[in-house]
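Hi all, long-time lurker, first post. I run a small reading group and we've been trying to get comfortable going from sequence to structure in the token notation. Rather than ask abstract questions, I figured I'd post a concrete chain and ask someone more experienced to write out its structure so we can walk through it together at our next meeting. Sequence below, copied exactly:
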Amino acid sequence: MTGAVGSEVEVLVVGAGPTGLTMAGQFARYGVRVRLVDRALDRVHESRALAVQPRTLEVLAGLGVTEEMVAAGNRAVRLTLHAGRWQRSVPLFDLGLSDTAYPYLLFLSQAETERLLGERLVAVGVTVERGVELVGLERTDRAAIATLRDRDGRVQHVSARYVVGCDGAHSAVRQFAGIGFEGGAYPQTFVLADLEIDGVQPGAAHAFLAGRGMLFLFPLGRPATWRLLAMRPADDPTPPGAPVHLAGVQALADAYADGALRLHDPVWATNFRLHHRAATAYRAGPVFLAGDAAHIHSPAGAQGMNTGIQDAVNLGWKLARALHADADPALLDSYQAERAPVGRMVLRFSDRAFTVATSTNPLVRFSRTRIAPALLPAVLAPRFVRATAFRTVAQLAIRYRRSPLSTEGPHAPRTGPRAGDRLPDVPPADGGSLHRLTAAPGWHLLLCGPPQGWPAREIADLTRRRRGQLTAHQLAGLDGVAPRAGAEVLRRLGVGPDAHASYLIRPDGHIGYRAGGTDLTGLRAYLVRWLGAYCL
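-- Answer (accepted) --
Happy to help. Here is the structure in token form:
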């Protein structure tokens, strides 16, 4: 091994896209010594991913960037479907999102998302080391030795307790770790362009349904007003690497929209192919994968970037905890147990949606251009159907009930969220935001019911022994007892006004443990396992 020996770090993050930036931000919150490297000399300035889901806005709130993202993005968007002369406008999220402060799909360029995340990292003292490439990786039982090469050819060896690969579909971390990446490529070639368009209603997303496939227009704002996504005809020989010219994109748009659109002033355009692949494992010893390094799929449903960011939020606090000597080794195993099923679900969802949108099978084409326009209004009419669909796409329905971290204690409430579920929020007007109450890093214990029923000394002892890691909050339905809470808070948790229940909230906003009554025996055992023996 040659080259300079770099200083040791606790975590090395490779790749500074949205996933890597979020990962590094998580480590900064927990005081972890982290290095963030990326072989690119600059962040992306194209739009790429452009929709941020409600759950992603929730998990990024802890990094202090969500409100800036909302201010910079467009949240008042509807989807207009076009099929010949037929046209129908449908809402993007209007039901089923009453338990979040962000009940909308936010249209925001990935370039803006990366800019805001990067500025936040700089504010907390973490910089992206650009022009630095991972060219080697060796694993031991307790660490990894990464070989880095900078833009000037200098080589450095860095010892890291953990390495996280957030370096995309062609992940060097994944390849050096020997982790497989199974799946394939779709046969179609697509065109992606950021540009100006005349002849289309501003502020809405548009989908043009045709026998050859679908053309999508998304309101972008910056670096151009519109993002265009269209499939080239099956017999089009254009290779993915060929340059894209405005005249060719205009011809493609004419074929989908019958000449109703005039394209001009392109900022950026490219041909590309889509893949659907998943890593065979999310971990190899001290090496972990997140985001596109672990799963790639079609952009249908705007799930990709959002899933990667939530991978980072799930893994970040676990690695921070694992750096303590008394951490249960099973904690890190829970990352794959929780996130791999989510990755597989997103792959299935996006693959089915992609097939419906692009298939040239005569039956699918007929369904897309004739049956779907006629039935879609009726399908979306029932409130329950719309609410279920919106919650799924919004990623608010993701839960980890089968995780080893999810425990239902004795006499748990019959209704309300269960262990493994996301903690629902309550808008401030309804009694106090649960997410703001639990926003600080660490675990949060919600004690529901009249305060006089709880063993105050025992609770004080639990929090004192885990100061900085565990915070207790008293929730009661009586006015004046707990200003942040009220009857609506308890109702959403499934707790009656005079009943007692405890909810232990993980650092990523999911429920780890819940039980009814005021006996804390089960809670104490849970804390001993996952937060360490100092909870005895």
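A couple of things your group might point at:
The mean pLDDT is 87.
The radius of gyration is 25 Å.
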